[in-house]
Amino acid sequence: xxxxxxxxxxxxxxxxxxxxxxxxxxxxxxxxxxxxxxxxxxxxxxxxxxxxxxxxxxxxxxxxxxxxxxxxxxxxxxxxxxxxxxxxxxxxxxxxxxxxxxxxxxxxxxxxxxxxxxxxxxxxxxxxxxxxxxxxxxxxxxxxxxxxxxxxxxxxxxxxxxxxxxxxxxxxxxxxxxxxxxxxxxxxxxxxxxxxxxxxxxxxxxxxxxxxxxxxxxxxxxxxxxxxxxxxxxxxxxxxxxxxxxxxxxxxxxxxxxxxxxxxxxxxxxxxxxxxxxxxxxxxxxxxxx
Length: 290
Hints:
Elements: H1 9-21, H2 35-56, H3 66-69, H4 91-103, H5 107-116, H6 122-125, E1 133-134, E2 140-144, H7 149-154, H8 160-172, E3 181-184, H9 198-215, E4 219-223, H10 225-232, H11 238-241, E5 246-248, E6 255-260, H12 263-268, H13 273-289
Parallel strand pairs: 2-3, 2-4, 4-6
Antiparallel strand pairs: 1-3, 5-6
Helix pairs in contact: 1-2, 4-9
């Protein structure tokens, strides 16, 4: 593997650009540092020192001295503490998540448990923990997939442009964001907005199912391909799974739910808004009956 110290400034700039596209959005230092310029200066200084060092290594006879050419032994790397290592998704982590979720007797207790949980890799790279927010008394629940970059930055589900579109969609059927309960399946944003892995989703499942159980909604509106697959247990696309009423939930609370396209999908494919509107009308009709 090529070390960063052996790269040119142009190669370093390309690497930083790649990290930015992959979702790395903040620095590890308190103040910004121009690493490209620093590496360029260091590389130039090494090029100047190298000939002088080689000349000093040559004795008067022209042959390098064994004592001077003997390679130096690098100090052993410092051990990494267990707390600094990322969590590894496995059956033990799933069991811990299930125990933490079942131990919560209210949404407030569950939120504390989710924020304290350290068994999922996604938490190590996320800035915020997204949890259900809104009015629990409404017994109306909206669930999205995983947090976006805007959600992670704001600490709230459905932020940014997608959130503004969601607000307009809800208003079209007489609902307001603050008057319902909104959450996401996955509490932490995956790096680069990639889909969660199967183990990551399994670890997060007890938390979202417990949110549904404690909130006791009478109807649930699901947004997005991942969310529909997660709850329906199928592999079809959102176009195949939308507009159908199914029962979801865990424990002792099963609730009717309908899936539709995510606001972000509607921003990239506005022609699909007609399909989403049909789903919203079906959701509103079910609310009226309930």
